[in-house]
Amino acid sequence: MHSPMRGFRESIQIGFLACALGLGACASPNTHRPSYDLDAENNEAEFQAELATQHLFETQYRLQYLGWQLSLANAPLCAHTRFEAGWMVSTRTDWPSALRGSAYTLFNVDQNPRILAVFADSPAAHADLRPGDRFVAINGHYVDTGRIRLDRQIHLALARASRAGRLDLLMERDGESIARSIPLDAVCDQDFRIHPSMEIGAFTDGQTLHITQGMMMFARNDEDLAFVLGHEMAHGSEGHIDAKRLNRWAGTLAGFALDGALLASGLNTGGLFTETGYATGAEAYSQEFEEEADYVGLYYAARAGFNLDTARDFWRRLGAQMPETLLKGATHPTSPRRLVLMDATRAEIYAKLNAGDVLEPNRQPQTPPAQDDPS
Q1: Dist. CA 19–CA 265, nearest whole Å
Q2: Poorest-confidence range of 67-71, 151-155, 225-229?
Q3: Which of 348, 244, 259, 324 is closest to 290 using CA atoms?
Q4: DSSP conformation class of 110
Q5: Is-contact 204 228, C-beta < 8 A?
Q6: Pairing with 366, which of 90, 133, 146, 347 sits 20 to 30 Å away (CA)?
Q7: CA distance from start to end of the chain
């Protein structure tokens, strides 16, 4: 007796055989194309791989350096911080397999952990660390390239160093050993990643900020990108992720309770109010959260030294790219409303700068706790 799986495999094999036999009846191209040099094709493949590798490096560097600047300048406003040295570190496994050869050619990236880039005016720069320097030991622990991932080792080393705010390194440069003790900088506890989508957008889970490849291309300059990063960072620092999660649960529970009450009375809603409660909770204060992220995010950009005068052009271009945002907004304010509110925020920031006031977002006054009546 044949098993169902065996019959399935036999059907697949017969199908492939039929396709192979039918190829002779398939239509073919009509033209006779010129012959070409296979070596030329291989050389072009190598050249294009190097172009792709250089582009990937430049894109990553742009994002990571801007993220570093924003995280460093706004650490006092972030709920959670960590210590960083201000560098990009890489091994061959960080690169797509098709680009690993060119990554070695261009940046000497191999299985050994090396510094890929050093950010200006960072602890790593002040310690005269350079691209190409190889990690030998971190805080007295030799780097293991075989068993434990490099990013995990550095993460653990930075966590250990956070108490003292320093990082002890043994590096290799051109065959010579270099010892460095680096005082680290406190930055917002935020990671920055490029999402492969070509849509123009960005999102965050509160810990990792994802910006799409489409947005990286749409943002013409560093100021444009800083507005987007500041906005998403503000979602995390203002607690919007947790608040939206709580609102979804509150709406879901309220709808579930109503479904249960109706079911007890003999009416089966099929979970209609549970689904409606979830959707309603998900959208609760959504536009207000977006407006607050615009507001706080612009402060983040200003504190990091970015020019706010280009914000108007950026948001107008974004509105023109997404005309559906001009007249209606479900989870986000309309693009005209966002621009007008950001103009007001920019004026508020400039007024504080001119007056020499502390550059921090205005907060709602806190209600003092009720006092016990002594009588």
Answers
A1: 60
A2: 151-155
A3: 244
A4: -
A5: no
A6: 347
A7: 91
272's tokens: 């209609």
Q: CB under 8 Å to 258, separation ≥6 — which residues? A: 273, 277
pTM: 0.80
DSSP annotation of 98: G
Q: How far is CA 262 from CA 123, 242, 338, 375, in A?
A: 63, 30, 42, 49
| Tokens representing residue 71 in the block | 């995280």
**What are the tens digits of pLDDT across the range 257-290?**
665 776 677 777 776 656 665 555 445 447 788 8
Q: Which residue has the tokens 């002779």?
A: 24
Q: How far is CA 242 from CA 35, 207, 289, in A?
A: 61, 12, 12
208-212, strands of its sheet edge to edge: 191-195, 208-212, 202-204
SS3 call for 79:
coil
Output the CA torsion sign for 235, 298, 61, 71: negative
Taking every pair of Cα atoms in the chain, the longest distance, rounded to a whole number of angstroms, is 103
Structure tokens at 147: 């068993």
What ranges in the chain are assigned the alpha helix state H? 4-22, 38-73, 100-107, 123-126, 150-161, 213-218, 222-237, 240-264, 272-283, 286-303, 311-321, 335-355
Digit-coded pLDDT (tens) for 186-233:
999 989 999 999 999 999 888 899 999 999 999 999 999 999 999 999
pLDDT at residue 275, rounded to an integer: 65
Structure token digits, residue 345: 């925020």
Helix (H), strand (E) at residue 183: strand 176-183
In this structure, what DSSP letter does residue 76 have?
G
Give bridge partners of residue 173 from the DSSP assignment: 176
How far apart are alpha carbons 207 and 187 in whole angstroms?
13
Q: What is the dihedral of CA 252, 253, 257, 258, to 10 degrees?
A: -30
Proportion of the chain above pLDDT 90, given as a percent: 45
Residue 135: beta bridge partners? Answer: 171
Cβ-based neighbour number of residue 29 at 10 Å: 6
Residue bearing tokens 């489409």: 214
Token pair 């190097």 is found at 50
Q: Please report how many Cα atoms fall inside a 13 Å half-sphere around the Cα of residue 47, on the Cβ side.
A: 6
